[in-house]
Design a protein that fits this description.
With about 290 residues, this protein is mainly alpha-helical. About 80% of the residues lie in helices and about 0% in strands. The longest helix is centred in the last third of the chain and has 55 residues.
């Protein structure tokens, strides 16, 4: 919703200023320029992007419209899941987590919290960090190193869509110039025509430059920035997951695991002391 509001402000301001200066919106409507610029930008995007990056980019664009799923509610669910796992591990030993980690879709703990259960990246990270310790493949002191490798891989995946979107934004002014040059070529081919026709062709050429710059700095660059912020929010969520897991395998007290992980969060998603007490109490009563 916020993205739509921003786009309305951008285009509304440009068109409003244009009409206030005596311009007519119809003078900016040239489908040929849109096809030239849009087609060239899309083609360049496809050329530079591996298939997975294109798919991730489409998902990212959908997410920019829907907004970040990693708000305070998501952290509340995450801490409830992790607190239950931490309590179970502290009381019965880390091997007690094996059925929940091996098959999270059938886990009585994960299924209580659909927001986490449906987040395959989050459940995959939780299970991926706990499983090797439960199986005895690694010792608990190796979990931070494993977590760092996992988080680095996730971060690299985030960088791909952001990179190609930024490159496309950078290229749009150039594609606008290409459209303008083609418009000048058409104008030169009809230089002996009526003045009105020459003026129309020149106007179309200038609109090409205008659209390329506007789409770059008014649409694609802001979307790239938004995508980057979403990536930071997702990484913060995964870093929190890793922090709690490290506390669990380190045999820290369950409440300490959650409180320590909570301290690294930004103020808009961090649970305060009272909220944590309510969370602990609710999980303990339910358990």
């Amino acid at each position: 919703m916020i993205v739509f509001v921003g786009l309305v402000v951008v285009f509304g301001s440009v068109l409003g200023g244009f009409t206030m200066a005596g311009g007519h919106v119809g003078a900016l409507i040239h489908p040929s320029e849109l096809i030239t610029i849009g087609g060239a930008a899309l083609g360049a995007l496809i050329i530079m992007s591996p298939k997975k990056v294109l798919i991730d980019l489409m998902h990212g664009m959908i997410q920019t419209i829907k907004g970040s799923p990693y708000g305070k509610k998501a952290y509340d669910e995450l801490f409830r899941v992790m607190y239950e796992l931490a309590r179970l591990s502290r009381v019965n030993g880390i091997l007690a987590l094996e059925p929940h980690v091996t098959d999270p879709h059938s886990s009585t703990i994960f299924q209580k919290y659909p927001g986490i259960a449906k987040n395959h990246h989050a459940t995959g990270l939780i299970c991926g960090l706990l499983s090797p310790v439960i199986d005895g493949a690694i010792t608990p002191d190796k979990v931070p190193e494993l977590a760092a490798a996992e988080l680095k891989a996730i971060e690299n995946e985030h960088h791909g869509p952001l990179f190609v979107l930024t490159k496309t934004a950078d290229g749009l002014p150039g594609f606008g110039i290409v459209a303008a040059v083609l418009g000048i070529v058409v104008t030169m081919a009809n230089i002996d025509g009526p003045v009105e026709e020459i003026g129309h062709s020149m106007g179309a050429a200038l609109v090409g430059t205008f659209l390329g710059i506007l789409m770059s700095y008014g649409v694609f660059a802001p979307l790239a920035a938004k995508l980057e912020f979403l990536g930071h929010e997702e990484m913060a969520f995964f870093h929190t997951v890793a922090a709690v897991v490290e506390g669990i395998v380190g045999n820290q007290a369950p409440k300490v695991c959650i409180e320590m992980a909570c301290r690294g969060l930004s103020s808009d998603v961090r649970l305060d002391g009272e909220e944590l007490k309510e969370l602990f109490s609710a999980v303990e009563k339910a358990g």
